[in-house]
Amino acid sequence: QPEVGKPLRNCYSLPGFDFAYGLYLPRRDGGVAEAIGHWNTVKPRTTKQVMPRDFITMNRRAVDAGCTTAREFGLYYKFMDIRCKDECRRSRWVSKIPADMTFGRPARPSTPIFDILQHRYKELWMERQRARTVVQDMEKKELAVRQNRTTYLRTHPPPVKEESFWHLTRFEKVWSTVASHHNPFLAQNQLCG
């Protein structure tokens, strides 16, 4: 059981209060004299750059040597390791970039100082504000005229509805069976027929 008001203890025995955790690094801070006298320089690495294999030359020489199968080509690659030359690799990359190409974003066009001295930008802003207030005043006047539906209908009367004589299409082409003087077309058809 843990003690009251204290966390449960683990099984590790910790060192005393004078123990410092972490890696101890001795400080050498001698000021300007040490900085000038003892330069911490980094020595350059002298690793030789390994050039990639030149498979075009190796394939050509393997065919000249009489290799025909994949196994013979693999053995030829293992024993005749030909690397690319530095000049041909450099010439490949240099030829792709145009000579007159410039990198980066183009500079922003300079602000004309004459317009700044004459407060031209302030005048343009004032003209835009005046135009905006004119438009807002016109909108307020239109809203003031249209106070309710009655005043709106007086100024804008609704369009007159045209009376439509619509009939069902199935009753349009039906002939009457009774001949009368009211239907002269039917009487004429019966005389002709």
How does this model look, in words?
The protein is mostly helical. Among the domains are: about 50-85, no CATH class; about 115-155. The protein is about 45% helix and about 0% strand. It has helices spanning about 30-35, 55-65, 70-80, 85-95, 115, 120-145, 150-155, 185-190. The radius of gyration is 50 Å and the shape is extended. The termini are far apart. The model has no long low-confidence stretch (mean pLDDT about 80).
C-alpha-based Rg, rounded: 50 Å
How far apart the termini lie comes to 122 Å
Instruction: Please describe the biggest sheet, giving its number of strands, its sense, and whether it closes into a barrel.
Output: none
Fraction of residues in H or I helices:
40-55%
Task: Give the helix/strand class.
Answer: mainly alpha
Quaternary structure: single chain
SSE sequence, one letter per element: HHHHHHHH
Q: Beta-strand level of the residues, as a percent range?
A: under 5%
**Count of DSSP strands:** 0
Report the average pLDDT across residues.
Answer: 78
What's the shape? extended
Q: Which regions have little confidence, pLDDT < 50, spanning 5+ residues? A: none
Count of helical regions: 8
Helix-strand blueprint:
Layout: H1 32-37, H2 55-65, H3 70-79, H4 86-96, H5 113-117, H6 120-145, H7 149-155, H8 184-192
InterPro entries: CFAP77 (IPR029147)
Organism: Formicarius rufipectus
Pfam family, one: CFAP77
